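Late entry, copper (II) ion complex.
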Amino acid sequence: MGQYIDGIRGPITVHDPAAPYKADDEMTITLSDWYHDQAPDLLNYFLSAANENDHKGAEPIPKSALMQDTQNAKFNVAPNKTYLLRIVNMGVFAGQYFSIDGHQMTVVEIDGVYVEPQKTDQIYLTVAQRCSVLISTKSDASKNFAISAAMDTDMFDSVPPGLDPNVYGFLVYDTKKSLPKPAPITTFAPLDEMTIVPKDHMALLGKVDHQIVMTMDFFDDGGINRATVNNVTYIGQKVPPLYTALTTGSSATNPAVYGVNSNAFVLKPNEVVEIVVNNHDTGNHPWHLHGHNFQIVARSAAKAGDYPGAAATADAASSPVRRDTVTVNTGGWAVLRFKADNPGVWLFHCHIEWHVEAGLSATIVESPTSLQGSLNVPWDHLKSCKDQGVQTRGNAAGNTKDFLDLRGAITTNPKHNWGALVNPPSSRTKARSIGRGFVA
Ligand SMILES: [Cu+2]
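Prediction complete; structure with ligand written out below:
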């Protein structure tokens, strides 16, 4: 893991010929955060006793914000046109604020869900969130305009002196004219996503068949800062959960076969699922679900305590905002609903990559027995596992006879985490990052 920290990521656009808006042209704008050290080194130090001792387990703090994988990127536009901007935060850690000088934005899509158009001067995207906006260009090309983004430094345990959280780009009407001097964003007032209404007006999923409460926290695991969901740290198993779901017959509906540290929750076909996330940490976390868009039924402010129960969802919108990544505020909670109509094995995890590595994940196993009859695993997936010595049959421990015998399932973390390094160092050396002050 950890490859995307070092740049193995990029936007993929799925074009919809029937999109419910019109634009003359479109552009994709990526936002991200950037480190000046590579992920294996940062990761190893992050999950070390030295970091827990010296920095209370703080996450590595990015060195820069990027737009279009650079700074001062230029986006050429013509007057009197409507542009669709597809904006994605493909960063590792920091949420980002985004605005365009002199141009109001009309939000038309979030996380792949079309929404009723809503005007705003500023949006906020956590890592993994996407948003499409329309802008109308000016009637003349007399000047160029700045695009500004800023990392949300509230997410950092400390802000190192000299860190510039801002990044700029330019809407260029006339390449011969000078670029404006950009100003950092100083007023943080993004569009409130809870006011967004999906274009299809899908009704609030009212009758919940299956409620799952997940309480997330961090703890000192023998000197190392690790994350938990319901007091369990996610740890990869000998057999990946998808293969366990496909090869354990009717036992696949028993969460136990996936191993305790998979944090598995099994869903029945077409039930209405409610996930309640209680955040016991002192920081916001962007929770991301694979395979579904969920309705954000309700969400507390920071430090509200645990979800108090159904009364707190009484004023939920009749057509709640639907997306696949949601901020759960520090010390607060969020209530999410979706219909289990997409069989599969789906991760539900905080999208801060450092937190994934610390174990802040759960596994949603949806309709495993219908999956057994419908999913054919491509040969190259199986080969990829084989080449790495990863088993593809049986329970989490690789037991193909007694699926409830979990002896041998993985319940402890490797002592040193080097992420995706194929040939990790034999012992940890002092992280180069420390000397460069990656934590203040
Ligand atoms: Cu997190």
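The CA atoms of residues 60 and 427 lie 21 Å apart. Will revisit in the morning.
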